[in-house]
Amino acid sequence: MTTHAPRPAPGSEQHSRETELVDRVTASFDHCPDPRLRELLSSLVRHLHACIREVRFTEEEWNRAIDFLTRCGHLTDDRRQEFILLSDVLGASMQTVTVNNEANGDATEATVFGPFFVENSPAVPLGGDISAGAPGEPCWVEGTVTDTTGTPLAGARIEVWEADDTGHYDVQYDDHRTAARGHLLSDAQGRFRFWAVTPTPYPIPHDGPVGELLEAVGRSPMRASHLHFKVTHEGCRTLVTHIFVRGDELLDSDAVFGVRESLVKGFEQQPAGTPTPDGRTVEGPWSRACFDIVLAPVPA
Ligand code: BEZ
Ligand code: FE
Question: What is the pTM assigned to this prediction?
Fold first, then answer.
């Protein structure tokens, strides 16, 4: 590891030149007619200048940073979004989720959305199978949807999606088939149940500049095993979240900082031949998990 000698603090003339520049740039937004835009830009400039001054960026380092962002831009199109990946691996996506889903009683915690959600997923009956042939160990998932007073929510729309056991979402398949995604509606008691595949770990796209960054800092591109949920019900805050697999060794190093302890669930392994909850015949082992979802009210 390279270590740098502590830098001397800038002298007073230097200090005043630097702070005068920060003040001049933030003042340039004073006449912005949109107060929110003024607030965002002033804060961004203050923090950006503070960073440049704190680490004493060299001009060569700054040019490398610009080159990095340029390469992110060149790779980004309507199928690949390198800037979102950058936001994800810097924890900025997760921090934005956290700020916008304030703690509310025992409401289920939110986590990152990820790039693999697809609108208009197939409707799956309660007890149905979302996997649609996606390879993986069968997994029975059941739970309830309630509000923060404990009242069951009937008719909640529960979207679920996941990678198969090769680490691919259906949108990454060559033949464009739909698999390992679907939506269900909770019953009159707020209950839901479905078959899926047991979640397994997979890497985020790491063949671009963000992958180089992870490599340079010795970080893995792997996401902890998870199953995505998006749950909506009138009068409630939409919940975008995942459940994670207790015991997964990646829980502490998820590439996008999406893990919350409250979202880690037991996926209990069932040996081959164990009777299933719905009488279905499953060849080989399977797993089962329970996820009780609590929706916060829509913010006032
Ligand atoms: C995902 O979980 O699907 C995901 C989240 C962030 C970046 C890449 C993938
Ligand atoms: Fe995912």
Answer: 0.92
